[in-house]
Amino acid sequence: MVKRPNILITGTPGVGKSTLAKELASITGFTYLCVGDLAKEEQLYDGFDEELDCPILDEDQVVDEMEEKMAEGGVIADYHGCDFFPERWFQIIFVLRTDNTLLFNRLEQRGYSDRKVEENVQCEIFQTIYEEAMESYRAEIVHQLPSNNPDDLERNLLQIQAWLQKWLLDNN
Ligand SMILES: Nc1ncnc2c1ncn2[C@@H]1O[C@H](COP(=O)(O)OP(=O)(O)O)[C@@H](O)[C@H]1O
């Protein structure tokens, strides 16, 4: 059987993770896995974060729930965090980055409260998710990708597909 890697698409909410990950899944035939949706469907929560205005993920339960699929390979996972996944799961991590003003507009359009917009734009300014990724995985497999406009999206898709082709050749 062909060995396939797992890819993590991460970054602040609104940077374009699901847009990129879904498109990539449809091109490659890999499985798109939105960790937030999975947690919601299965109610894998452990309380509510009043400050961030969102439920708190039960990380251990999420990991248990994902394990079987991840072991098979060929998953494109999408989540705005990355430090609780087992390191062995992912062969590459892409952290999407968006200019503050663009991100602000996208989050406002999403109908987020002022506070939630502010929290998330701050998260992007302090490159919280990038640092989390660099602390959780080998630096060589963590890549930042600009995600500001449709040209960026096209470039990112091509870049990831090129990486994937090489990985498949090297590992099969
Ligand atoms: N490369 C891009 N250029 C312009 N708009 C984008 C781009 N990627 C995503 N968007 C838009 O930004 C918004 C947030 O994208 P989404 O994929 O839902 O982000 P996330 O999954 O990171 O929360 C959506 O309205 C989407 O259409």
Automatic annotation (TrEMBL):
Q: InterPro entries this protein is in?
A: Adenyl_kinase_AK6, P-loop_NTPase
* Class of this enzyme: transferase
Top-level taxonomic group = Eukaryota
Q: Where does ATP bind?
A: 14, 16-19, 110
GO BP term, example: rRNA processing
Chief location category: cytoplasm
Which Gene Ontology MF annotations are present? AMP kinase activity; ATP binding; ATP hydrolysis activity
Where in the cell? Answer: Cytoplasm; Nucleus, Nucleoplasm; Nucleus, Cajal body
The record ties this protein, via Gene3D superfamilies, to: P-loop containing nucleotide triphosphate hydrolases
Keywords of the record, alphabetical order, are: ATP-binding, Cytoplasm, Kinase, Nucleotide-binding, Nucleus, Ribosome biogenesis, rRNA processing, Transferase
Its function?
Broad-specificity nucleoside monophosphate (NMP) kinase that catalyzes the reversible transfer of the terminal phosphate group between nucleoside triphosphates and monophosphates. Has also ATPase activity. Involved in the late cytoplasmic maturation steps of the 40S ribosomal particles, specifically 18S rRNA maturation. While NMP activity is not required for ribosome maturation, ATPase activity is. Associates transiently with small ribosomal subunit protein uS11. ATP hydrolysis breaks the interaction with uS11.
> Entry's PANTHER family?
ADENYLATE KINASE ISOENZYME 6, POS9-ACTIVATING FACTOR FAP7-RELATED
HAMAP family, alphabetized: Adenylate_kinase_AK6
How this chain assembles, per its entry, is:
Monomer and homodimer. Interacts with small ribosomal subunit protein uS11. Not a structural component of 43S pre-ribosomes, but transiently interacts with them by binding to uS11. Interacts with COIL (via C-terminus).
The protein's name: Adenylate kinase isoenzyme 6
The scientific name of the source species is: Petromyzon marinus (Sea lamprey)
Per UniProt, what is the name of the gene that codes for the protein in this document? AK6
